[in-house]
Amino acid sequence: MNNLLKLFIIATVFSFYQIDAQYIVKKDTISGTELSFSLDERINDALEKVEGNCSRSSDSSVKAPPKILVANRELTNAEICRKNPKIMGFKIQVVVVKSNEEATKISTEFRNNFRNLKVEKDASLRPNYKILAGSYFSKQSAADDLKNIKKVYPSATVIPYAVFCVEAK
Predict the structure, then answer these.
(1) Residue range 71-76: mean pLDDT, rounded
(2) pTM
(3) Is the CB of residue 94 less than 8 Å from the CB of residue 131?
């Protein structure tokens, strides 16, 4: 009898537990997919009250941000440099030599003759070395320096080369 009473009390507690919660079917607001979950009626009422206070409009479409029209024009050097610190520009190829010692000697000699131009050695053609000077945005901007360099190094020429924007003229 004692066991029967315990069983009855446990069954009563579980039945009240099941009666208290209801099976409510909700619809997803984004894609319309049905979501099924157990929810107490009081909690459901509270959620519906909060959702009712939201100022949502289901028929309003999402507005795209206004487009900003920019006139079609050529970018300035400063605008180009802001986007890319290293660009394809031009350098003056002073000479091409066959050894590193000779390249170092000509680089030093070039620095003494043309103090306002940066000079560098390019070893990409090993065993040959290129002596390069200056950094320019265009061939036209290199023309004046090329004319002065050709007086000392007649084989000098302007070549396309990757340059740092901040150094270019």
Answers:
(1) 72
(2) 0.51
(3) yes
- What is the rounded distance in angstroms from the CA atom of residue 108 to the CA atom of residue 105? 5
CA angle 102, 103, 104 (to 5 degrees): 90
Pair 150, 158: CB distance under 8 Å: no
What are the tokens at 39? 């929810």
User: Nearest Cα to 164, choosing from 93, 81, 107?
Assistant: 81
CA–CA separation, 164 and 135 (whole Å): 8
Q: Identify the pLDDT of residue 51.
A: 77
Sheet with 157-164: strands ordered across: 119-122, 129-136, 86-97, 157-164
d(CA 133, CA 136): 10
Q: Are strands 86-97 and 119-122 parallel, antiparallel or unpaired?
A: unpaired
Q: Which residues of 52-70 are buried (b: 16+ CB within 10 A; e: fewer)?
A: eeeeeeeeeeeeeeeeeee
Considering the chain, what is the average pLDDT of its residues? 76
User: What does the DSSP 8-state code read for residue 165?
Assistant: G
**Per residue in 101-146, pLDDT tens?**
888 888 888 888 888 888 888 888 778 888 888 888 888 888 888 8
DSSP code of 117?
A: S
